[in-house]
Specification:
The chain has 369 residues and is α+β, with helices and mostly antiparallel strands. The mean pLDDT is 93. The protein has helices spanning 7-18, 72-81, 131-139, 199-208, 262-273, 323-331; strands at residues 2-6, 32-37, 42-47, 51-56, 60-62, 66-71, 86-92, 95-99, 104-108, 126-130, 156-162, 165-171, 175-182, 184-186, 196-198, 215-220, 224-229, 232-237, 256-261, 283-288, 291-298, 302-309, 317-321, 338-343, 350-353, 359-362. α3 (131-139) packs across α4 and α5 packs antiparallel against α6. The chain folds into 3 domains: 2-114, DNA Polymerase III, subunit A, domain 2 (DNA Polymerase III, Chain A, domain 2); 126-247, DNA Polymerase III, Chain A, domain 2; 250-362, DNA Polymerase III, subunit A, domain 2 (DNA Polymerase III, Chain A, domain 2, Roll), CATH 3.10.150. The strands form 4 sheets. The chain has a 9-stranded antiparallel beta sheet. The protein starts with a strand and ends in a 7-residue tail after the last strand.
Length: 369
């Protein structure tokens, strides 16, 4: 095979495909990215056998077809250092020759026939979600998963597909993040069974989706899912186990409600977080008429007190929270977002909501610190 490639376009696609390549694996063939060239397309494919990605590559001219395995680590390093706008790939048997105007690299390769198959998107029955909306939904939920839990379902994001609406939910039992967006159907997708998609696959999906007007096409099957977005397709097995009934956890009523700009809220939370430690990580959030005061103290560090003016005229409520949990959600929002804070009392969860359907619940810590 002989290919002439635009360096920037090839590097971007190769980086995406490499995201699915495992860092450790007993199967050496999985340490490669598969280059697949046909009359219709040039694709780069990576997989760890639990998930996989197929990326279309633009900016390639060739009259060849065939397949070859590209060693991920070595080629990533080469592409990162190249300065030329284009380069050529010449592949014969298991030898790869990469040339530019000023450099030449020869690499050995493995047999592409040993590379496991990664499905292409051939579905007719699927759900359509605006790509930018789905990307935002993933960003607002995936951080709340618990990949270390023995409850495997907590290591993924629940996909709840409802008529006209898609809902994502993630929890590690100490906090819960829920995001929603509109969706439509194409064909006749089977009745959804609320699958759980691994957080690693969700992160990969977030990478391939752009903030534009395109649609993400999502097909859920019995044991796996496949999504097409932009110029890439992501495949993943589903997480086994039962996800908690997230709807039952969200309080239906509250005793106090206040609106706070996300940017200002994040700023004071980050300030209060400075004077915390692993043993004294809690921060007191004191809601009083006209002001929110964040108080933190750690015997080995010191103490801090940070005020934020708020439009609140109710009874004082103090709730102790992990500032990391609060900051992670606020960071996922646009700085101009207005967050509605709902409180019941000092012993119940604090709930943060946005106008576009995000709901974030944080359980309080013990105040005996």
């Amino acid at each position: 095979m002989h290919l002439t490639c635009n360096r920037a376009m090839f590097s971007a696609a190769f980086s995406l495909a490499a995201s699915a390549v495992p860092s450790r694996t007993p199967r050496d063939v999985l340490k490669n990215v598969l280059l697949s060239v046909s009359a219709n397309s040039v694709q780069l494919i990576g997989t760890d056998q639990e998930m996989g990605i197929r990326c279309l590559v633009n900016g390639v001219s060739t009259a060849s077809d065939g397949e070859a395995l590209l060693p991920t680590g070595r080629l990533s390093s080469i592409l990162r250092e190249l300065q030329d706008e284009t380069f050529t790939l010449e592949i014969e048997d298991r030898n790869i020759l990469l040339r530019t105007n000023s450099a030449k690299f020869r690499l050995t390769s493995e047999d592409p026939a040993e590379f496991p198959p990664v499905p292409a998107f051939t579905e007719w029955d699927f759900f359509r979600i605006p790509a930018a909306v789905f990307r935002t939904m993933i960003r607002r939920t995936s951080f709340a998963t618990d990949t270390e839990s023995t409850r495997y379902a907590l290591g993924g994001v629940l996909v709840d597909l409802q008529p006209g609406k898609a809902v994502l939910a993630a929890t590690d039992t100490r906090r819960l993040s829920v995001a929603e967006g509109q969706c439509t159907v194409h064909g006749e997708p089977p009745a959804p069974h609320m699958p759980v998609v691994p957080s690693k696959a969700m992160s990969l999906i977030e990478k391939i989706l752009a903030d534009d007007t395109s649609q993400a096409h999502l097909a859920i099957r019995a044991n796996d899912m496949i999504l097409r977005g932009g110029s890439a397709t992501v495949y993943s097995r589903l997480v086994e186990g039962r996800f908690p009934r997230y709807q039952d956890v969200i309080p239906s009523t509250c005793s106090a409600k206040v609106e706070i700009p996300a940017e200002a809220f994040l700023s004071v939370v980050r300030q209060a977080q400075i004077v915390t430690s692993e043993d004294s990580r809690g921060v007191d959030f004191v809601f009083a008429p006209g002001v929110l005061t964040l108080i933190s103290q750690a015997s080995e560090i010191g103490e801090s007190k940070v005020d934020l003016p708020i439009a609140y005229d109710g009874l004082p409520i103090t709730i102790t929270l992990d500032p990391v949990f609060v900051a992670e959600f606020l960071r996922s929002l646009d700085s101009a977002t207005i967050v509605t804070v709902e409180l019941v009392d000092s012993e119940s969860a604090m709930v943060l909501k946005t106008a576009d359907g995000a709901v974030y619940l944080v359980m309080p810590l013990s105040r005996d610190r």
